[in-house]
Design goal:
The protein is an all-alpha fold. The chain contains 18 helices and two strands.
Length: 466
């Protein structure tokens, strides 16, 4: 097309002629510069996040829908504890949100995972997503009516926790059905990166909404954005159980109605596989001892200048995780995933402890972000170990246990932090937990199979063998 100058007058393109003898030679970059440029480009490409799983339409829709919906979910995740603190004026009750959500998380995480192994996973994902959406709408209504009922907020958190447990365990079991095995680590990295980006954006949006508008506005944003997750679930193909091979427990038939026996089979499978057992154990240590989020409303109020700071505190971990995720091309090349998992959690604990010593908001945000980067790495390895180690007929149950640990651990951490702060004070509860985490998690390296775990051999090993 012709070029146009700033006045809109069309100018003809200069004619292109072949190089003629006697013309000055075009400058040629030195070989060293070419090599350096090539190496730099290779490094950048190797570090950038792997987008290969997005070539698969079902995963792409799931990833996109959940990434958008998770922004709204994080807005609610900030609004609820801030509303509880406003109603009760106590970090104890903020911490109790974790306790209230823990029992339904455990029950429905384990049972929901068992159900996901015997029913169409698409249907189960849709139903559990509707439960989550209903809880958000109920939060919106109570805020619009100005009820300020602590009991109602606790009940809604409990129901929301049940829906979250079933939806998350089902979604985790869906991923290996819509992707080839070699793309699972990259898919987990994409999912965790998107969720942490949402966790960074959501609290900042929540802080803005709560400072300028209301709790009702925050819940309304969540209700609107969650429709994208519902759309992604509706577009999935039918995903009935695979029945072409015997179950990992040696049985050739699955139970029609999953109950305690199905749940117990999943727990026994984990108990007899030290690699899986230790991957869960180190995460429990990290979240119970070093999760400071129940302290954020109090810290913002007493140390960092009010509600304007609470969004930054809730977002800081996710900011670090997002940066780590966007530069995570190297993650799939690390094969000693057990050792890498321990190192990441040690960094998490020390960074959290350092953030608790800070009296400047921005120093605290930086250390929390460092912890978040380490948390992203540990999350990818935990999920990848589980999904590549478990057979399909066990994935729902093991994902249920995974959700109980991953989501239940922080809730126990909320209880621990809130109760400790009430007894020994804000700083001791925050710093002491981080240091204890960094020390205790090193014990996992004493387990030989976990210390020597290599993802390359795990993908080809018989998962039914201990």
């Amino acid at each position: 097309m012709p070029d146009r100058d700033s006045r809109g007058v069309t100018e003809p393109l200069a004619p292109v002629t072949a190089h003629q003898p006697g013309d000055p030679a075009a400058p040629v970059p030195p070989d060293g510069a070419v090599r350096r440029g090539g190496r730099a480009l290779t490094v950048v490409r190797g570090a950038a996040i792997d987008l290969t799983p997005l070539r698969h339409p079902d995963f792409r829709r799931l990833w996109t829908g959940n990434s958008i919906a998770f922004v709204g979910f994080q807005v609610t995740a900030v609004a609820v504890p801030v509303q509880v603190y406003e109603v009760s004026r106590s970090s104890f009750w903020v911490g109790m949100l974790g306790a209230v959500g823990l029992v339904p998380l455990i029950v429905f995480g384990l049972w929901g995972g068992a159900i996901a192994d015997v029913v169409d996973r698409r249907v189960l994902l849709i139903v559990s997503s509707l439960v989550l959406w209903g809880c958000t709408l109920a939060l919106l209504v109570q805020a619009m009516l100005g009820l300020d009922s602590l009991g109602l907020l606790l009940v809604l958190v409990a129901v929301q926790s049940a829906g979250f447990a079933v939806a998350s365990s089902t979604r985790g079991a869906v991923i290996p059905r819509v992707l080839p095995a070699e793309d699972i680590a990259s898919a987990n990295t994409l999912s965790f990166t998107a969720s942490t980006l949402a966790t960074a954006v959501g609290p900042l949006v929540a802080g803005l909404i709560l400072a300028r508008w209301s709790f009702a506005a925050a819940y309304a944003v969540d209700a609107v954005l969650f429709t994208m997750a519902l759309y992604a679930a509706l577009r999935l193909p039918s995903l009935p159980p695979l029945t072409s091979s015997p179950s990992s427990s040696g049985q050739t038939e699955r139970p029609n109605v999953p109950g305690l026996r199905s749940v117990a089979e999943g727990l026994v499978f984990i108990w007899t596989r030290p690699v899986l057992l230790m991957s869960f154990a180190v995460d429990i240590v990290a979240m119970v001892l070093a999760m400071p989020r129940a302290l954020f409303p109090q810290a913002a109020d007493e140390r960092f200048g009010g509600q304007g700071a609470v969004g930054w505190l809730f977002a800081a971990v996710a900011i670090g995780s997002s940066v780590a995720g966007l530069s995570s091309g190297w993650i799939r090349r690390v094969h000693r995933q057990g050792v890498a998992l321990v190192v990441a959690i040690v960094v998490w604990g020390l960074a959290i402890a350092a953030s608790g010593l800070a009296h400047s908001l921005w120093v605290a945000v930086v250390f929390l972000a460092v912890g978040g980067a380490a948390d992203l790495v540990s999350a990818v390895y935990r999920q990848t170990i589980l999904q590549t180690y478990a057979p399909d007929d066990m994935r729902g149950r093991l994902q249920g246990v995974f959700i109980v640990v991953v989501a239940g651990g922080p809730r126990l951490g909320d209880v621990r932090a809130g109760a400790m702060a009430a007894v020994v004070g804000l700083q001791a509860a925050w710093v002491g937990g981080g240091i204890a985490c960094a020390v205790l998690v090193l014990g996992a390296l004493l387990v030989p199979s976990f210390r020597t775990y290599d993802a390359r051999t795990a993908m080809t090993a018989d998962p039914a063998a201990p």
